[in-house]
Structure formats: C-alpha cells, structure tokens
Amino acid sequence: PFQRITRLKLLLQNILKRTRPGSEEEVQATQAYDALEKLIKDCNENVQRMKSTEELIYLSQKIEFECKIFPLISQSRRLVKCGELTALDLSSLRKVTTRPIYLHLFNDCLLLSRPKEGGRFVVFDHAAFSDVRGEK
After folding, report:
1. What is the pLDDT of residue 1?
2. Which one of 15, 68, 105, 114 is at 20 to 30 Å from 84 when CA atoms are compared?
C-alpha cells in the first residue's frame, strides 16, 4: 500500500537519472515524479489528520465537562500540548496549598481540568485560543 508509493518515488528518481536531458521521456518522467510527490504529500497529510481525529476521540472519552461547552471532536481541532501543572492557592495567609490541574492546549482553545481517578479529567474552565497569553 503506502510503502509501495514511496518505492515508486525511488524508481522514478532512478529513471530520471538515466533519461536523456530534454527528451520526451524526461518530460514524462518529471511529470510522473511531480504527481507522485503531490500524492505522497496528500497521503501524509491525511494520515496526520486521521491520527489527530483518533487522538480527539480518545480524549473525548477521558474528558468530562461540568457544563457541555462545545463538542471536543472537530475536523479542524488539533491537540498542541497537554500536561499537568501545580496551582498555588495563596488565599490563606498562613499556608500555601497546592493542587494539580491539567491543561489541554488545542489549536483553537485551552481547557483547564482537574484529574480524576482512572486517568479521566473534569474541565472546570476554558478559553478561546485568541484569549490565551503566556508569560515567562
């Protein structure tokens, strides 16, 4: 299947090396090579899109919303980064308390959640990507 397409690219490269410059065969081999390059690029993009969709489906089974804000699965949405942070609670003058929070940064939004048992998360806040700003 896909591996054969990449082998065809190598075959066409070898054909191009052995054709006479300026010949009709070179023109046809170049056109075939360019078309094959486009096909390989399209295949790679579709594979990445499918992986991204599979990742969103997996996440949607692990993430719960306190109130359903929007559907998590979208063709245009991609997970950029996720990970755990420690939130500091400075409301008490005597003691600083910490609690873990989890961030899911997508290309269009940010979800803040609390970890639950079983690797699940409950979203307690969100923001559109345009409203997110980071500082060092």
Report:
1. 63
2. 68
On the question of pLDDT at 136 being above 90, the answer is no
Judge residue 104's burial from the number of C-beta atoms within 10 Å of its C-beta, 0-12 exposed, 13-18 middle, 19 or more buried: buried
Tell me if residue 2 falls in helix, strand or coil: helix
AA identity, residue 123: V
**Interacting residues of 109 by C-beta distance below 8 A, sequence separation 6+:** 70, 77, 126, 127, 128, 129
Paired residues of 125 in beta bridges = 112
Q: Which helix (H) or strand (E) holds 98?
A: strand 97-106
> Do 122 and 116 touch, CB atoms closer than 8 A?
yes
91 φ/ψ angles, rounded to the nearest 5 degrees: -70, -30
Domain ranges of the chain: 2-131
CATH number of 2-131: 2.30.29
Distance (Å, whole) CA 41 – CA 51: 15
